Amino acid sequence: MKILLVEHNIFTLEQFKKMLEKNAIECDLISCQTGGEALGIAQEGHPDFVIMDIHQPCIDSLVVLKILKNLNEDIYFLIIITPKDYMWLEKAISLGIDDYLIKPLEELEFMTRVKIAIKSREKKIKRTRSTELEKRIKDRTIELIEANKKLLAEITERKKAEGALRESEEHYRQIVELMPSAIIVHSKDKIVLTNTAAANLLNVTSPQMLLGKSIVGFAHPEFRETLREQIQQLMKYNQVSKKIEAKFTKTDGTIVDIELTSSPFSYQGEPAIQTIIHNVTERKKIETELQKADKLESIGILAGGIAHDFNNFLATMLGNISLAKVYKDNPDKIYEKLDNIEKATLQAKELTRQLSIFSKGGDPVKKVVNIEELIMNSTYFALSGSNVSCEFFFSEDLLPV
Asked: Collapsing DSSP states into helix, strand and coil, what is residue 361?
């Protein structure tokens, strides 16, 4: 309880103090001698109880009373007056004083009024605090109700979002199951969702048998590191991977050729990777057969060309033999034809040697040759049997190799 004593007479002021101390009034007592001082103290300290003489120097006490009431209308005012101050008393009552005393003061009356004032003020403070507490409780209750409404709305929205997410995930699972391609969703190096196509690809009876396993574990040993690096890059850069070819090992040990494409994905609120796998084993077999057919066709063309060249050599030989018979009486002509037969025979021998090296994959012969002759002979051999002709243009300063 803060009590402010305002009395211009120093003797009377000290008398008030002694009476309060003598009667053991527990309070924070503040005293001053002028109304101006009282206004300054009230603005800083907000007293609960003011005892003030109606007569104040330099400033009208009613002005002081009015200002203090404006500062805090709950201040308890006890005014000290003289018998001549009834006109002032009426004005003071209109301004809201709570009690008054008439000089000269008796200690018993003064202390009785002070105690009544203190009890009245304490009750008022309790009522005010109780009212404030009730208001705070009411405001807090309103806040809690509003917070509960917001929380309920958030919970409702969250449930709707969770329901929509579950529906979306269920729809996604159905789409994955209906896809003809093998689809595997893996998170933290474990398969969390897959379909029947993936189960068939890896030779298991149901997709559930793949859950919890590592997709890298199904990769052929020579492709595991490549697949692991791809997964790390996807998680790091969050981009769709390029299509890569690899081999997977089924549960029965069979190796299949596959093509796979992976992309970052979110599954059940966790980062994941969706991998689409195509079994290309049959396609690889067809490609191999086509390559074999292409090789056989090339060999057929080469064989035809060689046969054609041999026919040419044989025709040359037979022609020169026939001419040699015609020129049996002319040694020079016979020699010329025999020389032609020898050249054709040597060319056939060289062609046979090349064919033997080609078929057996023989060791290469290392020797210094004329680059022009080498290129021309190789070209003619490659074009044997075809209808393709070739023109050669060589620099004049080519060195042997």
From this structure: coil
Distances (CA, A) of 228 to 183, 220, 236: 17, 12, 13
Confidence check: pLDDT of 247 > 80: yes
In this structure, is the dihedral angle defined by the CA atoms of residues 354, 359, 360 and 364, taken in order, positive or negative?
A: positive
Euclidean distance between CA atoms 190 and 216, whole angstroms = 9
> What is the number of other CB atoms lying within 10 angstroms of the CB of residue 192?
16
Query: Is the pLDDT score of 364 beyond 60?
Result: no
Quote the pLDDT of residue 381.
54
| Nearest C-alpha neighbor of 281 from the set 244, 254, 312 | 254
Burial class (CB in 10 A: 0-12, 13-18, 19+), 378: exposed
Structure tokens at 287: 């490609």
pLDDT at 361: 56
Q: What is the pLDDT of residues 328-339, one digit of tens each?
A: 778 888 888 788
Q: Which phi and psi angles does 185 have, rounded to 5°?
A: -105, 120
Residue 217 DSSP one-character state: G
Rounded distance between C-alpha atoms, residue 368 and residue 311, angstroms: 31
Helix (H, G, I), strand (E, B) or coil at 204: coil
What does the DSSP assignment read for 309-337? HHHHHHHHHHHHHHHHHHTTT-HHHHHHH
Residue that has been written with the tokens 């008030």 in this structure: 16
Q: Please indicate, yes or no, whether the overall pTM of this predicted structure exceeds 0.85.
A: no
Whether the predicted pLDDT of 125 surpasses 80? no
Q: Return contacts of 249-257, CB within 8 angstroms, 24+ apart.
A: 249/218, 249/219, 249/220, 250/201, 250/202, 250/203, 251/202, 251/203, 251/204, 252/203, 254/203, 255/220, 256/201, 256/281, 257/281, 257/283, 257/284
CA dihedral 11, 12, 18, 23 (to 10 degrees): 170
Q: What pLDDT is recorded for position 328?
A: 76
Of residues 375, 373, 317, 376, the one with CA closest to residue 348: 317
Amino acid sitting at position 95: L
